[in-house]
């Protein structure tokens, strides 16, 4: 049985630092000695571009290619769709063709489990698989939640993000109840934090009071920094672009928190099997 943990990074609100978190959490886990696969499950291909692949339409095999083969019961080599990046992290990329997969999945048998089938073919080679989800609860996000062991929710401390968080938690609960009973929420990560502003302090306090009893709010907070924006524009992780900066330090600490949760769950799983 694989010890790989599959984590979906999701938020139905866009612009909360989800893709940036996927990249830097992945690299942070690699720095701890883990093998990590990133999956770009967003037709906008932000994760793919954030790792330096600008011409996404020129990539011969992407996530949509692999999922289409599984849907059509064709032989599929998942390894053919994995890119090995310069920073040591593996990536199943995306392109605009993935947008059409939403409509395809609606009429597909076992439509909730296509991505899970794809991941199951390679997960034995990794310690972590991180899925960067679309900012909506379409079929691709449902596939990600169906495939995942857990969810990490990046959340920017703005008022409207609280309303989006309520909707997201209901959606995760629905998937857990109807599709994936083992799905759990690892926690809420505050991103692009400007701690000196009143709205930031108010929102973080509100989130902790509303959800903190049942859902972990990670101790680590990712500070706002233009360096993180520049790193994404350069197609690099924050560790490659500004390794001594405050954002790199925060993501390194966050990766440790995630790894601690993962190890506790692996220990519990081993105890349950015994």
The structure class reads alpha/beta
**What proportion strand?**
15-25%
> Helix and strand string, N-terminal first?
EHEHHEEHHEHEHEHEHHH
Mean pLDDT: 91
The main pleated sheet reads as: 8 strands, mixed
Major β-sheet strand ordering:
3-4-2-5-1-6-7-8
| Uncertain stretches of 5 or more adjacent residues | none
Could you describe the 3D structure shown?
The chain is an alpha/beta fold. It has helices at residues 18-31, 46-50, 63-71, 101-106, 114-120, 139-147, 159-178, 198-211, 226-234, 238-241, 246-273, and strands at 5-9, 36-41, 83-84, 90-92, 128-133, 150-155, 184-193, 217-223. The two termini are 13 Å apart.
Short summary of the structure?
With 274 residues, the chain is an alpha/beta fold.
Task: Supply the key terms.
single chain; 274 residues; alpha/beta; eight-stranded mixed beta sheet; 11 helices
Provide the fold topology.
Elements: E1 5-9, H1 18-31, E2 36-41, H2 46-50, H3 63-71, E3 83-84, E4 90-92, H4 101-106, H5 114-120, E5 128-133, H6 139-147, E6 150-155, H7 159-178, E7 184-193, H8 198-211, E8 217-223, H9 226-234, H10 238-241, H11 246-273
């Amino acid at each position: 049985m694989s010890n790989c943990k599959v984590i979906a990074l999701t938020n139905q609100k866009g612009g909360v630092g989800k893709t940036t978190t996927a990249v830097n959490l992945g690299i942070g886990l690699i720095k701890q000695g883990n093998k990590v696969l990133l999956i770009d499950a967003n037709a906008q291909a932000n994760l793919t571009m954030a790792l330096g692949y600008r011409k996404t339409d020129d990539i011969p095999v992407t996530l949509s290619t692999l999922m289409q083969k599984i849907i059509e019961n064709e032989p599929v080599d998942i390894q053919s769709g994995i890119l090995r990046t310069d920073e040591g992290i593996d990536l199943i990329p995306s392109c605009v063709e993935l947008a059409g997969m939403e409509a395809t999945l609606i009429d597909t048998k076992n439509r909730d489990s296509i991505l899970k089938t794809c991941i199951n073919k390679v997960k034995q080679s990794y310690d972590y698989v991180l899925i960067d989800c679309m900012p909506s609860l379409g079929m691709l996000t449902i596939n990600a939640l169906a495939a995942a062991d857990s969810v990490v929710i990046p959340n920017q401390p703005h008022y409207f993000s609280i309303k989006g968080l309520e909707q997201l938690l209901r959606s995760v609960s629905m998937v857990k109840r109807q599709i994936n009973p083992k799905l759990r929420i690892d926690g809420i990560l505050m991103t692009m934090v400007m701690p000196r502003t009143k709205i930031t302090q108010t929102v973080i306090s509100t989130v902790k009071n509303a959800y903190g009893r049942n859902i972990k709010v990670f101790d680590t907070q990712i500070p706002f920094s233009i360096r993180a924006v520049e790193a994404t524009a350069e197609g690099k992780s924050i560790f490659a672009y500004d390794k001594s900066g405050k954002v790199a330090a925060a993501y390194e600490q966050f990766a440790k928190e995630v790894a601690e949760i993962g190890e506790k769950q692996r220990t519990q799983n081993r105890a349950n099997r015994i």
